[in-house]
């Protein structure tokens, strides 16, 4: 048998550079386990349907398991001439068990075979990503619980706005990652259908049992259209889209960690294990990990655009262009997995500078809104209250004071409705703990959310 599975049609050998240019074995070899897993299920189905004999199926399964051990042990020699993981394994199978190995490809094509392999691979990877994401969420919850009383400035436009609990700030990212986890679960459910049996594009004339194979491989069902089965890469696009959003969340958190760890903020201390120094400035401690994750976010965005561009004009069904789907997908998986793992470890070792956060929260008139709310409760319309407090803030700026430092007489020059009880409303604690509604920054609200998140983690 010729080394090329399609050599019968051709009279000239493939140019060596063309072989190298068109081969995918350098990157799709990571699919070997799934290619063998799918092939074993396919062989057993062929025997079950009397398309091949039970004896032939047993020999095929035995040979595939030997190849699996060979690859696991690093003894398998991959060949560029055989293009991809599918033909490398099939050729080796025929070498091991003889011509009967050639029966394995009955009733299937590399088109539906690769669609199966990628789905099996991505399904496993999604399960692994869910674990990494869960670890990061756990680290955020641990830090929130350990620092439940720490007050920091909340920002809008990166300007001091209102005081919030540091735990509340961390829980905002926990919510983002909850949505990310939900997107990955939804993707897994949508993609978990079997494409094998679609053949090259039109199905097969053999009496196969696709539903049995789907059950053996843990799929929820089978694809319903053979053309779509081999040309669909929506699951790859959807994953890269979900991964881009996830990396955007990590990038936003990275930016805050970078700011907070700077000397100007000094809100947190990153462990030395996640930082590097300068080759020239001995005092430097650079937050390289969050900076690199922030940078890698663009890489993941690029992979999404690459896949979208790849698929945008392809006619049905399979086209060689689609070989280019794997490297962006694999790179995205590797990048997201590494980013999640390192972030979970880094957040777990984060040290909080509570005193510095409190000092910063006390600056910038962060309780001004509380004064406005106080005046409203005294019967003043909010727009008038807003103007009253605006004038109060201007007075503070001109006299180099902050709102809690004003005397009652100074407050009352802006509104006679302000009484001595104003000082119960302008402390950081009063401001934070007055926001008790669900989703607010009061300690009791934050504690409820931590407990809810802990309970949800116990159920998952």
Automatic annotation (TrEMBL):
Pathway: Amino-acid biosynthesis; L-arginine biosynthesis; L-arginine from L-ornithine and carbamoyl phosphate: step 3/3. The keyword Cytoplasm applies. The keyword Cytoplasm applies. It comes from the Bacteria. It is an enzyme of class 4 (lyase). It catalyses: 2-(N(omega)-L-arginino)succinate = fumarate + L-arginine. This is Argininosuccinate lyase. It comes from Geothermobacter hydrogeniphilus. The lineage of its organism: Bacteria, Pseudomonadati, Thermodesulfobacteriota, Desulfuromonadia, Desulfuromonadales.
């Amino acid at each position: 048998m010729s080394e090329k599975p399609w050599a019968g049609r051709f009279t000239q050998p493939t140019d060596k550079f063309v072989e190298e240019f068109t081969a995918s074995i350098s990157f799709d070899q990571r699919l070997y386990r799934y290619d063998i897993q799918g092939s074993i299920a396919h062989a057993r189905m062929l025997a079950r349907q009397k398309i091949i004999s039970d004896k032939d199926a047993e020999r095929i399964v035995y040979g595939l398991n030997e190849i699996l051990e060979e690859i696991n042990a690093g003894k398998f020699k991959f060949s560029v001439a055989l293009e991809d993981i599918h033909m490398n394994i099939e050729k080796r199978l025929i070498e091991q068990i003889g011509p009967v190995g050639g029966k394995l490809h009955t009733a299937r094509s590399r088109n539906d075979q690769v669609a199966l392999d990628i789905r099996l691979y991505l399904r496993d990877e999604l399960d692994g990503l869910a674990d990494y994401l869960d670890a990061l969420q756990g680290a955020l919850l641990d830090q929130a619980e350990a620092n439940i009383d720490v007050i920091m400035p909340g920002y809008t436009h990166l300007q001091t706005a209102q005081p919030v609990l540091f735990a509340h700030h961390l829980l905002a990212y926990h919510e983002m990652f909850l949505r990310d986890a939900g997107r990955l679960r939804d993707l897994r459910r949508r993609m978990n259908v079997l494409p094998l049996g679609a053949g090259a594009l039109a199905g097969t004339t053999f009496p196969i049992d696709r539903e049995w194979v789907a059950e053996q491989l843990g799929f929820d069902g089978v694809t319903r259209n053979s053309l779509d089965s081999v040309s669909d890469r929506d699951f790859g696009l959807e994953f890269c889209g979900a991964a881009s959003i996830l990396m955007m969340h990590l990038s936003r958190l990275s930016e805050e960690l970078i700011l907070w760890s700077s000397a100007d903020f000094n809100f947190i201390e990153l462990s030395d294990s996640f930082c590097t120094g300068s080759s020239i400035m001995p005092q430097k401690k650079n937050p390289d990990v969050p900076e690199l994750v922030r940078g890698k976010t663009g890489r993941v965005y690029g992979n999404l655009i690459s896949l979208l561009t790849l698929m945008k004009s392809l006619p049905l069904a399979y086209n060689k262009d689609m070989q280019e789907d794997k490297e962006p997908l694999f790179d995205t998986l590797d990048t997201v997995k590494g980013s999640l793992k390192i972030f979970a470890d880094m957040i777990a070792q984060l040290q909080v500078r509570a005193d510095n956060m409190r000092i910063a929260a006390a600056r910038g008139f962060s309780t001004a809104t509380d004064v406005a709310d106080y005046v409203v409760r005294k019967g003043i319309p909010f727009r008038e209250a807003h103007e009253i407090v605006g004038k109060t803030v201007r007075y503070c700026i001109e006299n180099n004071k902050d709102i809690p430092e004003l005397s009652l007489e100074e407050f009352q020059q802006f509104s006679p409705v302000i009484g001595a009880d104003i000082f119960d409303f302008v402390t950081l604690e009063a401001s934070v703990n007055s926001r008790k509604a669900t989703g607010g920054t009061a300690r009791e609200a934050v504690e409820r959310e931590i407990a809810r998140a802990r309970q949800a983690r116990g159920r998952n």
